[in-house]
């Protein structure tokens, strides 16, 4: 008997593979009988089903690249990991488990390397409609939704807002309050985040999202909060050739141009300031729409037009406009 598993007292069907010496030497095989039965089932399956059909199956084993699914005893197909779910799947176990009963679509049938064997490509996700078919009825531009960060890239984060629908949050759309150089400074894979839908492109199947638009914008009302000529303290962010960038609060940064620094009564305070230093400044101009603010020093010196009349004399040292004006009038007499 070719099969190694035998059970005393149980009855099985066998096929006779050799009959010799008038029946005194008989060789039987259960395996060959089972193989014949399997071949019959496989033939019956292909008579009823072909490419494009949807059938039921049982998950038998998982691999890094997908899942093997039994369609009928002795006949398996493979669903690639990208075909297990409309959602992004990194691990087949996140979508299915061995023993699960699933509906699958037969994508392709090819003959295997050995006669009587087959390579069958299956899809679990294609048994249901693509979520993009109803995307324009599910969401609208301006909607605020909760999504899951599924992937990070250099330029931003992909957030799943519905099974199979990922949108991109560009790094420029991640924060009002800080300059984001890499997405992991703000989010991590698996995080749940609130996003605003900025655009939906049904043709290219792309969604543009914003995290910062779902948060309060610090620039709203900035012109009322920071009145012209008011004095405030700020923290030096960085120095450029054309001036200093000074943060007044998270998300609000103003520029003190070099021309204003040179007019400061004590310009050394600003010329020597390093990132992180606290300095006092005065608001010169605010543009909420452009998110720009111009700063100057609280002790800005008078313009050169007035100083030329002072003649550099000691009485102008008091620094009052009245003293300079009186000195100029004396010169005219």
Percentage of residues in DSSP E strands: 35-45%
Radius of gyration in whole Å, from Cα? 39 Å
Structural class by sheet pairing and helices: alpha+beta
Low-confidence parts: 303-321
Distance between the termini: 135 Å
Strand order of the largest sheet: 3-4-5-7-6
* Average pLDDT metric: 82
| Overall geometry | rod-shaped
Question: What level of helicity do the residues show?
Answer: 10-25%
Explain how this protein is built.
This protein is α+β, with helices and mostly antiparallel strands and 333 residues long. Helices cover 17% and strands 38% of the residues. The protein is built from seven helices and 17 strands. The strands form four sheets. Strands 3-4-5-7-6 form a five-stranded mixed β-barrel. A hairpin with a 2-residue loop joins strand 3 and strand 4. Helix 6 crosses helix 7. The longest helix has 19 residues. The protein is rod-shaped.
